[in-house]
């Protein structure tokens, strides 16, 4: 069980490992405008999903180095979501 506390609010989440690299996923509180509560995110910089994602984003500005991290949203039954991130170049 992963426990995340922010502003006095405690959230308990199931343990999940990233299906791409096996790393235990970490709780993360996205910006309020997303409408999401706490999600689980793979923070591994060696994750194949993260490393390969820079080429998967269409119509991005050349040289932007945007990619995605793998994440799970507990509010929709732990279904996968992509979270934009800066990838190594």
Described by strand count, sense and barrel closure, the largest sheet is:
4 strands, antiparallel
In total, the number of strands is 6
Q: Give me the Rg, rounded.
A: 14 Å
Structural class: mainly beta
> What would the principal axes of the Cα set say about the shape?
globular
What are the segments in which pLDDT stays under 50 over at least 5 consecutive residues? Answer: none
Helix and strand element order: EEEEHEE
How many domains in all?
1
- What portion of residues belong to β-strands? 35-45%
Question: Kindly state the mean pLDDT as a whole number?
Answer: 82
Helix content, binned percent: under 10%
What's the multimeric state? Answer: single chain
Tally of helical runs = 1
- Placed side by side, the strands forming the largest sheet appear as 3-4-5-6
Terminal CA distance: 34 Å
Describe this protein with a few key phrases.
89 residues; 6% helix; mainly beta; 6 strands
Outline the secondary-structure elements.
Elements: E1 2-6, E2 9-13, E3 26-28, E4 39-41, H1 48-52, E5 66-73, E6 79-86
Antiparallel strand pairs: 1-2, 3-4, 4-5, 5-6
Structure in words:
The protein is mainly beta and 89 residues long. It has one domain (2-86). It contains 1 helix and 6 strands. It has one helix spanning 48-52, and strands at 2-6, 9-13, 26-28, 39-41, 66-73, 79-86.
Give a short summary of the structure:
With 89 residues, the protein is mainly beta.
